Structure to design on (325 residues):
């Protein structure tokens, strides 16, 4: 019998902070990180769903911080409470529905940029200033193919917030490289989570037909994204920074 | 009614909107027009509908009456 000890993808001994860990991709990322050996610090607004994630984690040494990332003082609280980190997954995000550009409202623009872009920027700023990210460490941002690789009618506000997040990630990758902090981005295609749950607008047949357009034959599962994030967190990606990893079942090829 | 019809004409880019027709009778009806009408309801009429509901009205007039009855 061969005992596997060689695994550059392992997160054994690493502590990873995951935002948006109470649902969808963030929840799956937290669970998968724990299965890969990490101690995970979960954060989100909903205490009940966050606790459910905590219960699903494997191993020990995990914790949770209930906080609203729209609020700068609560971001400070996360920074304050976080222990020394080997990894951080800036994943929390919102959709705000679809609407054409001529109907955008200032309040909505402010909301989407606050949650999807500015919150991650301020969180990372706090973690770096307070020296919570050790050398070497890895930060992964959950962006989207929307705004980065595709453009669809009605999704402009979301796409802009995600394109801005990607642009920021590249700059900060360059600026933090001397501190040994790698910064990378994943851009998922359509993943089945509460964010994308059918609203009743489309029939099951229409949804099935849309999923069938994906070259790999289906929409993504949260785990599909979690595994990409784990790769970027792991030592296997130690020479990768500023990259944008598309995880989209091939949809941007068609 | 006139104001709403004029806003719908603007969205569909049709000069003399025939309110006895259905939205889907117009070749200008597409996903952008549909999304624009939903956004118009939200921003100017403080009400919401699904795209399916909008498209299902027997006539644009019936749609307008429904929207105005909610005011
Ligand atoms: N699903 C997709 O198809 C897809 C595709 C591309 C990119 N993405 C991106 O992937 C990320 C995760 O999405 P998901 O599909 O997993 O969505 P989700 O199931 O709705 O989860 C979103 C998470 O973000 C957290 N969150 C939202 N606003 C917050 C705030 N103000 N403060 C703190 N936490 C906040 C939520 O936590 P609470 O509710 O507890 O606050 C929740 O845990 C997002 O950035 C999304 O844009 C998703």
């Amino acid at each position: 019998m061969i005992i596997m000890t060689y695994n550059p993808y392992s997160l054994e001994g690493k502590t990873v902070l995951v935002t948006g860990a109470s649902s969808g991709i963030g929840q799956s990322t937290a669970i998968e990180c724990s299965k890969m050996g990490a101690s995970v610090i979960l954060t989100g607004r909903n205490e009940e769903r966050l606790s459910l994630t905590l219960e699903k984690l494997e191993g020990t040494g995990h914790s949770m911080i209930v906080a609203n990332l729209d609020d700068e003082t609560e971001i400070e609280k996360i920074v304050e409470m976080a222990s020394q980190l080997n990894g951080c997954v800036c994943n929390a995000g919102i959709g705000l529905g679809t609407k054409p550009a001529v109907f955008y409202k200032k309040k909505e623009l402010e909301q989407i940029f606050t949650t999807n872009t500015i919150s991650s920027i301020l969180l990372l700023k706090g973690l770096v200033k307070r020296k919570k990210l050790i050398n070497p460490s890895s930060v992964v941002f959950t962006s989207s193919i929307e705004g980065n690789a595709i453009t669809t009618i009605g999704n402009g506000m979301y796409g802009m917030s995600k394109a801005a997040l990607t642009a920021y990630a590249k700059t900060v990758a360059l600026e933090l490289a001397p501190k040994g902090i790698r910064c990378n981005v994943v851009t998922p295609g359509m993943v089945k989570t509460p964010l994308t749950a059918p609203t009743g607008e489309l029939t099951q047949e229409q949804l099935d037909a849309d999923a069938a357009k994906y070259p790999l034959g289906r929409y993504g599962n949260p785990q599909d994204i979690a595994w990409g994030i784990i790769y970027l967190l792991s030592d296997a990606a130690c020479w990768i920074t500023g990259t944008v990893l598309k995880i989209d079942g091939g949809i941007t090829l068609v | 009614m006139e104001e709403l019809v004029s806003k719908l004409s603007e969205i569909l880019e049709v000069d003399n909107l025939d309110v006895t027709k259905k939205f889907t009778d117009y070749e200008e009806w597409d996903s952008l027009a549909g999304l624009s009408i939903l956004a118009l309801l939200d921003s100017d009429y403080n009400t919401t509908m699904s795209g399916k509901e909008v498209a299902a009205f027997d006539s644009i007039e019936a749609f307008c009456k429904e929207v105005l009855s909610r005011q």
Observations:
- Chain B has one domain: 2-69.
